[in-house]
Specification:
Length: 123
């Protein structure tokens, strides 16, 4: 099992940037792919981005391509989500999740989840 803790959320104006972090503990952290998902009030949880266990493969939702970048530092047991050109529709609680090795775009494919960090973008 992997324990995940997100940080870096906050309130920004449209066009601003934030960098989310997901710190992990537990066995064989480096063997797990990591995904970011988000959930706004009254909406279903949606996929944002994912990165494979070794960082060679990434996957993004169409809504964030060109604006968000996912990366990882296995030496620090941390995955990052750099969010630029933020829009009000990016407002949500952002969750980090883990699955074995390869990227996945569905929440059902991930088995460990963090508690989330809130991102609020004002217009």
């Amino acid at each position: 099992q992997v324990q995940l803790v997100e940080s870096g959320g906050g309130a920004v104006q449209a066009g601003g940037s934030l960098r989310l972090s997901c710190a992990a503990s537990g066995r064989t952290f480096s063997m797990y792919a990591r995904g970011w998902f988000r959930q706004a009030p009254g909406k279903e949880r949606e996929f944002v981005a994912a990165i494979s266990w070794n960082g060679d493969s990434t996957l993004y939702a169409d809504s964030v391509k060109g604006r968000f970048t996912i990366s990882r530092d296995n030496a620090k047991n941390t995955v990052y989500l750099q969010m630029n050109s933020l829009k009000p529709e990016d407002t949500a609680n952002y969750y980090c999740a883990a699955r074995w090795r390869t990227v996945g775009g569905k929440a059902s494919e991930y088995h460990d989840w963090g508690q989330g960090t809130q991102v609020t973008v004002s217009s």
